[in-house]
Amino acid sequence: MKYAEHSAAHVRADVLVVGAGPAGSNAARLLAKDHDVVIAEEHLTPGEPLQCAGLVTTRGVPSFARDSVINDVRGVRVHSPLGNVLELKAKRARAHVLDRPRFDRMMFHSAVDAGAEPLLGASVRGVHQTEAEVLSELRSEGRLSAVSSSLVVGADGYRSICRRAARLPGPRHMVIGIQADLKGVDSDQESVDVYLGRDVAPGFFAWAVPAGDITRVGLCTWDSEDAPAVYLKKMLARPEFRKARSVSGASGKIPIGPGKTAVRDRIMLVGDAACHAKPLSGGGVYTGVKGAELCAQVASSVLREQLGAGTEDYDALWTEAFGRELSMAFRIRKVFINLTDKKLDKAVKLFDTPDMRELLESKGDIDYPASLASSVLRLAPKLAQFSPQIIKSFL
Predict the structure, then answer these.
(1) Which residues pair with 123 in a beta bridge?
(2) How far apart are the C-alpha atoms of 146 and 164, rounded to whole Å?
(3) CATH of the domain at 248
């Protein structure tokens, strides 16, 4: 389905949403029910180019977008640097594998169907706040136009122009990811593989996600001397992938570690623009979609001029919903990135006990992994040896 670009030189709206990823589209969908909303996307087709492994929980997939699910997984195999494998398998599916471009398109179409005015192929070049409104400059096919709005929702990713316009800090860590879609991998469709080690993916991890007739093999790195492509080449040389054929690839950056606020006056940030990706997995669909819901709730109250409503109310909501989890997970990440391969291997072994496997298989949650920290430490107190000062705070 194609949408024509808006031809007007100047548009007035209640809200301009910048970016048509899941977060931006969800905010636009919810706000368009009661307000005039424009949603601007720099690409001509939402969801392209692909920049995600597409592994999400049910929380991150609204019911109207369930047709984008291509596989369910209930297990994980964690490969330590020295070759040990921790295998976990829950009784029921814990995550969905998405056709991510299809998911993004479904989210976008839902926003347009709700009444949002689409501007495709329109890149926002500047955002300027005044006391009464926000003026945003856009470029499309070499032409300049403008949108004046009461509020701007910045869903424009890790390079967010909206974040810069709001003078809000960037991420504490920026990880770089790369992925190849492979055909011909003999994979267990119910389990994801995770690979650890400084020679595998320094500062993060590598993965193999089963997605029907393809397997998504990728990794992220942080603070590495070599480019991610160097490590991906090593991954693809492993015996389990060596005979497979690469049919497509993707790359991108993930901003990790949000500040205390995602708001500055009339600009509100969601998703990667707000640095709301999960520090331990890099996933951002759930936090983006949920954050957009909370952002829309507050923005609507402000637009209706409800007594006492202010855009800053959004900070309290996202902090309560997932902000504390992000903070705890980032502290755990700081422990992880300082572990040597030998210590990583030892940590994997400490997790490989009957009681620990039962805990993780029954209560593990990829959206809220840090919430299990105290339970994990009670079962494996020796984990405290890796960073006593930080880990003590979880007990």
Answers:
(1) 139
(2) 18
(3) 3.30.9.10
Q: How does pLDDT run across 72-99, given as a tens digit for each residue?
A: 999 999 999 999 999 999 999 999 999 9
Hey, what are 106's tokens?
């479904």
How high is the pLDDT of residue 309? 84
214-221 vs 206-211, strand pairing mode: antiparallel
Structure token digits, residue 320 = 């309560």
Packing angle of the helix pair 341-351, 354-363 (nearest 10 deg): 80
Q: Tokens 């039962």 map to which residue? A: 358
The whole-number pLDDT of residue 141 equals 85
Tokens of 246: 């690469």
Domain residues for the domain of 26 are: 10-48+101-171+257-329
User: Are residues 32 and 109 located together in one domain of the fold?
Assistant: yes
Q: DSSP letter string over 170-236?
A: --SEEEEEEEEEEES----TTEEEEE--TTTSTTS-EEEEEETTEEEEEEEESS-SS-HHHHHHHHH
Count the domains in the chain.
Answer: 3
Q: Could you tell me if 85 and 194 are in contact, meaning their C-beta atoms sit under 8 angstroms apart? A: no
Q: Give me 195's structure tokens.
A: 């690979």
Per-residue pLDDT at 188 exceeds 50: yes
What's the CA gap between 364 and 357, in Å, rounded?
10
**Where is the domain boundary, 309, 329, 349?**
329
Classify residue 59: in a domain, yes or no. no
Considering the domain architecture, whether residues 230 and 192 belong to the same structural domain is answered as yes
Instruction: Give a yes or no: residue 67 inside a domain.
Output: no
Nearest to 100 by CA among 61, 59, 150: 61
Q: Are 23 and 270 in contact (CB under 8 A)?
A: yes
